[in-house]
Design brief:
The protein is α+β, with helices and mostly antiparallel strands and about 170 residues long. It has a single domain, classed as Beta-Lactamase (2-Layer Sandwich). The chain has a 4-stranded antiparallel β-sheet with strand order 2-1-4-3. α2 crosses α6. The longest helix is centred in the middle third of the chain and has 18 residues. The chain is globular, with a radius of gyration of 14 Å.
Length: about 170
């Protein structure tokens, strides 16, 4: 799969995995689903769900808590800047050489997979509204790329009772 096909697949995931509404209770439920799925792996992980800039759910079983919390924060910043999942930004950077300025700012942006935008259903997703349509974010840190992204997608599918294209196994 080439980079453009990967981006199309990731954009399709974002289009399909949208919510009718999203409350604090939904954030807690989604966070618990993701934490349970992540617990199936022996690697310690950190999960965060935000609505706007407010952390509504956070769980970590990582002894490297500060490192993992930093990663989920930087992934969220990347999503808010690019309007797409952190894996989408990684593909653009690693495969197409784009977003180099953002990638150089490692204190602010986390170019690792596992961050996914939370959007409501409604108007079609376009480049013009990709940032403004984001109401929150779910992020996982601790597993190799792109496993973080795949687990987030699995949790969203379970929560929404939806199906999305399978995440590519290699980045």
């Amino acid at each position: 799969m080439d980079a453009r096909e990967m981006l199309e697949l990731l954009e399709r995931q974002e289009e399909l995995l949208r919510f009718d509404s999203f409350t604090n209770q939904d954030a807690r439920r989604l966070g618990n689903i993701l934490a349970d799925i992540a617990a199936e792996n022996p690697t310690p992980t950190t999960v965060r769900v935000c609505i706007g800039d407010t952390v509504v759910f956070q769980y970590t079983d990582s002894p490297e808590e500060d490192v993992r919390l930093g990663w989920v924060s930087r992934k969220y910043n990347l999503i808010r800047k690019t309007g797409h999942s952190s894996m989408h930004a990684c593909v653009r950077n690693r495969k197409l050489g784009e977003l180099a300025e953002l990638a150089a700012d490692t204190d602010t942006y986390g170019f690792g997979c596992g961050g996914f935008p939370i959007r409501l259903k409604g108007e079609p997703l376009t480049e013009e509204n990709s940032v403004s349509s984001i109401i929150g974010c779910v992020a996982l840190s601790g597993l190799p790329d792109p496993q973080d992204h795949d687990l987030v997608v699995r949790a969203l599918e379970q929560f929404l009772g939806a199906s999305a294209p399978k995440t590519p196994e290699v980045l």
